[in-house]
Amino acid sequence: MNGVLIIDKPSGLTSHDVVNRVRRILQQRSVGHLGTLDPLATGVLPLVIGNLTRLAQFYSTSEKSYEGVIRFGFATDTYDAEGEPATPAQAVTLNWDQVMSLAATFRGLIEQMPPPFSAKKIHGVPAYKLARKKKEVVLQPVQVEIKEFEIFAVEGDRACFRARVTSGTYMRSVAHEMGQKLGCGAHLESLRRTAVAEFTIEDAHTLEELQAAAHPNAAKPEAAISVVEANKENGIGPRLLETFFIHPRLLLPQFPSVTADEANTARIRAGRSVNLPEFSGARQVKIFSSQTDLIAIAARVAGTLFHPRIVLADSDGS
User: Fold this and answer.
1) Which 3 state secondary structure label does DSSP give 121?
2) CA 153 → CA 69, 150, 156, 240, distances in Å?
3) Which CATH number characterizes residue 304's domain?
4) CB neighbours of residue 103 within 10 Å
5) Which of 9, 30, 193, 278 has the fewest C-beta atoms under 10 angstroms from its C-beta?
6) How far, in Å, CA of 54 to CA of 58, rounded?
7) For position 268, what pLDDT does the model report?
């Protein structure tokens, strides 16, 4: 089973928890994700399955979009609602103009300090492991870009926002720093990711929906019945599951698509270069052997000669 699946991650699960659940549901060991979401956060979590796990390298710097709520009045040690209060609580009534002006200072290229409870490494150790042990966490600021940051509602001590950011941006840090600048403390109360690269929340499915499609006859969420067995019993599983995966032609839309003939397909599957005259101006292309069978991402070597950067099909075509 090869494909890209978008899960609407529920709050309370880590991204790895979701990966493990999908492995069990699909009876598929090779499953990975394209960008971690904090346990508190919900929304778009793209998963790559089977041979398409090799696509992960092309999404390491993908833009991400969010909606969320910042609560002012006290900071927390994790910079979000899961943490312990780190400053005394105080009553706050936000001023719309003040919050809007403050938000504008975070747009564009900024130096951002990652949260102490983060996966950033300190001498090879994730910062959150040190923070949990109450050890000193010394992190360095990182340059990130906040391309859009809009406050669309302010009520009492809460501000609702939308944001579009580059990879590596922590909205928790934005909330924390806004609280520091207002002198009242703040933290990220809730966060929902609405897009990663070309994938949006409209593409997403819940774990429960995936479970129902893969195991239509299963009474329990973790039933041991395999996808193959479910499919053989009623034929419903495969038809439903097909609708859950992103169509391969929609992946990596910045790369043009080409359908290879039989001879070139064989060469590509063997990891050999091919001539693609009609794509001499492209740096990289997606190569298909049919309408839906994505077999490689190839990079231009020179002129019209392209060499597979990654091969997504085995030499036997599987």
Assistant:
1) strand
2) 9, 9, 10, 39
3) 2.30.130.10
4) 19
5) 278
6) 9
7) 94
**pLDDT < 50 stretches in the chain:** 220-228, 230-236
> What pLDDT was estimated at residue 224?
37
Domain count, the chain: 3
Looking up residue 172, the CATH number of its domain turns out to be 3.30.2350.10
CB 107 within 8 A of CB 146: yes
Q: In angstroms, rounded to a whole number, what is the distance separating the alpha carbons of residues 64 and 242?
A: 26
Contact 41, 193 (CB under 8 A): yes
Q: CA 221, CA 225: separation in Å to the nearest integer?
A: 10
Looking at the fold, whether 233 and 185 belong to one and the same domain comes out as no
Residue 318 domain flag: no
> How many helices (H) does the chain have, and how many strands (E)?
8, 16
pLDDT at position 26: 92
pLDDT tens string 208-259: 999 988 887 765 444 434 444 544 444 445 556 778 999 999 999 999 999 9
Looking at the domain assignment, is residue 177 inside a domain?
yes
Residue that is last in its domain, among 211, 244, 277: 244
Asked if the structure places residue 255 within a domain, the reply is yes
**Between β-strands 284-288 and 257-259, what pairing exists: parallel, antiparallel or unpaired?**
parallel
Catalytic residues: 38
Q: Is residue 284 part of a domain?
A: yes
Query: Residue 114 has what DSSP assignment?
Result: P
Are residue 143 and residue 234 in the same domain, yes or no? no
**Cα–Cα distance, 160 to 142 (Å, whole number):** 25
* Whether the Cβ atoms of residue 175 and residue 70 lie closer than 8 Å to each other: yes
Token pair belonging to 43:
């929304």
Do 85 and 232 fall into the same domain?
A: no
pLDDT, position 226 = 47
Please write the tens of the pLDDT for every residue from 68-104.
Answer: 999 999 999 999 999 999 999 999 999 999 999 999 9
